[in-house]
Amino acid sequence: MSNSTAPVHESAALLYANTDFSQLNWLELQWAAWYLWIDNPIIATGLMSFLLHEIVYFGRCIPWIIIDAIPYFRKWKLQPGKIPTPGEQWECTKQVLFSHFTIELPAIWLFHPMAEFFGMSTWQVPFPSWKEIAPQVALFFVFEDMFHFFAHRALHWGPLYKHIHKIHHKYSAPFGLAAEYAHPAEVFILGTGTLAGPILYCALSGNLHIVTMYCWIVLRLFQAIDAHSGYDFPWSLQHILPFWSGAEHHDFHHMAFVNNFSTSFRWCDRLFGTDDKYRVYRERITAARKAGMTAEEFKAMEARLCAEAEKEGVEAEKVAESYRYNKTKVA
């Protein structure tokens, strides 16, 4: 006869029964303490995953909100005439929070069972070394970038754009908070690229710790938010790693609607020729900088080039939204 009082999950104390805590570092001790405190691996992993996402996402957005409020930084704004208002940022925040709490929060409780199904370590300590984590995260970056490129291009196709992706293109001059301003279906589609890399790697290798995935998620959130920031500083990563996309690359996509479909790297757009208009635009900006213009003249020139690119983008968006578009120009 079965014991009706038996727990439906292994207690954390049982999970750590053979663990030598004296051999763990401070972070590993806190990790084990969390699972011991919650005493349910499924809840502990789900709650930690959700809190990590919220803290990192909004924590990274705060500096950009502050920067948007300080006129000094306008000299590095990619579309200097379009500063998000507090009202726009609040409306964006409400939509993002709604998505987080109605879609991601319910779904995240499935993460621990799924992780363990594919053999991912969750509560286990000690952690893998940085020498093991770094190449895995690098691989996830490459996988996600390629997945995102093709999925993003698909989302610019008529019906998918009109009914799904159009929400994300509400802001032609994006800002940090808008990184996850999207339709629930888009969150699922593009989010698949973020999760599928680690899951496939784990399924094939049988060797992945969730702490590696958390490192990847944190860096991916930083990448997405910074790419939507709307600022190109001299110290921005794309000036150190020329193949990195960054805000300067992605801002053009929101402004002109076309080109630059990848996330982290420029490789796919260059390989498939989906950066042609972007490169022409940057060449004109560079030529204007070298033309010996005054600050006022350059500002006027930059505004004109932005307006031209955005006007072409409006026409391209009309084309994408048209189900029966043919060679006849859309009015």
Automatic annotation (TrEMBL):
Keywords: Membrane, Monooxygenase, Oxidoreductase, Transmembrane, Transmembrane helix
GO CC, alphabetical: membrane
Start and end residues of each Fatty acid hydroxylase domain: 137-274
UniProt keyword Transmembrane, yes or no: yes
Source domain of life: Eukaryota
GO biological process: lipid biosynthetic process
Compartments it resides in: Membrane
Single GO MF annotation: monooxygenase activity
Major location (coarse): membrane
Protein name according to UniProt: Methylsterol monooxygenase erg25B
Source organism of this protein record: Cerrena zonata
